[in-house]
UniProtKB/TrEMBL annotation:
Pathway: Carotenoid biosynthesis. One of its GO terms (cellular component) is membrane. Its main location: membrane. Keywords: Carotenoid biosynthesis, Isomerase, Membrane, Transmembrane, Transmembrane helix. NCBIfam families: CarR_dom_SF. It holds the Pfam family Lycopene_cyc. It is a multi-pass membrane protein. GO terms for molecular function: intramolecular lyase activity; lycopene beta cyclase activity. The chain crosses the membrane at residues 6-24, 36-60, 80-97. It is found in: Membrane. It comes from Phytohabitans rumicis. This is Lycopene cyclase domain-containing protein. Residues 5-95 form the Lycopene cyclase domain. GO terms for biological process: carotenoid biosynthetic process.
Amino acid sequence: MERLTYLAVLAGCLAGALWLEPVLRVGVLRRWRRLLLTLVPVVVVFAAWDIAAIAAGHWTFDPAQTTGVVLPGGLPLDELLFFIVVPVCAVLGFEAVRKVLRDP
């Protein structure tokens, strides 16, 4: 079970934010092109940063807490998912706050 720790945290983040889409109708997932344009630079920059840090020996991941699926460059799949999940949750939260403040 410990190998799923990272994924469990990501699932918790999604559970805390995904409900905003249907309940508040923020439209983040419906505007998927806009979301993709937001995510791509984040994923590319931070994945490259992590890969460089791994190659330089400055950064490691505990294999006991990740799935064990490692992408080229030594980047764990879990970390790549982090770069997708956390920004999606942030955008959902931001849009929810905007909607609530706009439509009292």
